[in-house]
Design goal:
428 residues; 2 domains; two-stranded antiparallel sheet; 12 helices
């Protein structure tokens, strides 16, 4: 196996940046690779120690791989490779339509979509006997999840399907939110009172014993799938577990144990650009407007929180990519791309910021109107503007999605050892 870890980049965005930053902090050599490169045979020509697939949206990534890319990953693992998938990257490996079928288990379905709106740290119970678990950690630990699910065997699955549960959910940790409700800060007595008096179960059912990390074999290779984001900055137990896994994947190499706190807006810039500087000023004004309307809040130093009903995730992704892109040194291929894409990005961003600043107070009023009887004048126009700005689903789209795509095209040309080097087209 080759020494570097490979990070499958397509549609990773903030989660890909988080993964690359974590690998860099731990001293783990890596390069990013596209689904197109995988489909063209990159894994067969130079197999990595492990293919790391960050969070994101599995269906988009599966589409980017295409049939040839999906087959190439299966062949790589079957021949002895390692697949490490996190959250959406874990979902990509499962047995399902739009999945790689490396693992026979499936994604847990939700009877209540509210259960999916969980973010922050959870308590986990780990299998301490597994060689994939670091011996220095206790069996109960806190690890971060960002809108996770769980893993379950399909109906009628055989008991000897070879899937090992490496960790199960064991409840909320102190900073866990359910949407914008501070679930982890609530006492057991308060949670019980909600159930008894109102029939409301605030804690999602999967937090009580559902599978969070699993592993197994596929051919001569293996997969490790995690809904916990072990690469989350400043999460000590999670970071130690990630470092241990990387060491196992690399045949006993020893890596660092700490991924420091991440404050993208405070990181020193390796280079300056007028288009990005203008967009950062617009973003600062836009976020200030969102905070003032109580639609946005700081979830972490690198992640926004938002009021339910607001398309907060794509906006948060845009803010993080914009703040973090100049932390990576310039490259000739990045310069060539940005000469074409930069002016387009700056013009689109200025218009986007102006429209969003008008959208925020209208959205706040619409949320208020939904709670009281009143006229619905303008609500149809507001919904249309939201779709135009942010798209229809949680994955994002619209103008925001296009801005993210343009920034992502720059970022992937700046990351270490991007392979093969992307073309310099301004269309990303």
């Amino acid at each position: 196996m080759g020494a570097p870890f490979w990070v499958l980049w397509d549609h990773a965005y903030v989660w890909g940046l988080l993964a690359c930053r974590g690998l860099l902090a731990l001293g783990a050599p890596f390069r990013v690779v596209s689904g197109a490169a995988v489909a063209a045979g990159a894994l067969a020509r130079q197999p990595p120690a492990a293919l790391i697939v960050p969070g994101g949206f599995a269906r988009r990534r599966f589409a980017a791989l295409g049939a040839a890319g999906a087959a190439a990953i299966r062949d790589y693992v079957a021949a002895g490779g390692t697949y490490f998938g996190v959250c959406g990257g874990a979902g990509l490996a499962l047995s399902r339509s739009g999945g790689l079928d490396l693992c026979p288990w499936v994604r847990r379905t939700f009877t209540d979509r509210l259960d999916h709106l969980v973010s922050g740290h959870v308590r986990l119970l780990a299998d301490t006997a597994s060689p994939l678990f670091p011996p220095e950690l206790p069996g109960e630990l806190a690890a971060p999840v960002w809108w996770p699910s769980g893993f379950v065997p399909p109906d009628g699955a055989a008991a000897d399907d070879g899937v090992a549960i490496l960790a199960t959910y064991a409840g909320a940790a102190a900073d866990l939110l359910l949407a914008d409700i501070p679930l982890g800060a609530m006492s057991e007595a308060a949670l019980a009172a909600c159930r008894q008096r109102f029939g409301l179960r605030l804690a999602p059912a999967f937090l009580d014993g559902g599978a969070c990390l699993i592993g197994g074999r596929f051919g001569r290779g293996r997969y490790v799938l995690s809904h916990a984001h072990l690469e989350t900055p400043d999460s000590p137990a999670a970071n130690i577990w990630l470092a241990h896994l990387l060491g196992v994947f690399a045949g006993g190499e020893v890596f660092g144990r700490v991924i420091p706190a991440w404050r993208p807006e405070r990181e020193p810039a390796c280079w300056e650009d007028a288009h990005l500087a203008a967009a950062r000023r617009d973003m600062a004004a836009l976020l200030a407007a969102g905070f003032a309307q109580h639609l946005l809040f700081r979830r972490t130093d690198w992640l926004l929180g938002w009021r339910p009903g607001l398309p907060g995730f794509p906006l948060s992704s845009l803010a993080v990519l914009l703040a973090g892109v100049t932390a990576w040194p310039r490259t000739p291929v990045g310069d060539a791309y940005w000469r074409q894409a930069g002016p387009v990005f700056a013009a689109q961003f200025a218009d986007f910021a102006r429209r969003v600043e008008a959208f925020f107070p209208a959205k706040r009023l619409a949320i208020t109107r939904s709670l009281v009887a009143g006229p619905d004048d303008g609500i149809g126009a507001l919904a249309a503007e939201q779709t135009a700005l942010f798209g229809d689903g949680p994955a994002g789209g619209g103008v925001c999605g296009e801005l993210i795509r343009l920034l992502d095209g720059l970022l992937v040309r700046l990351l270490p050892n991007a392979w093969p080097a992307p073309a310099s087209s301004g269309r990303g």
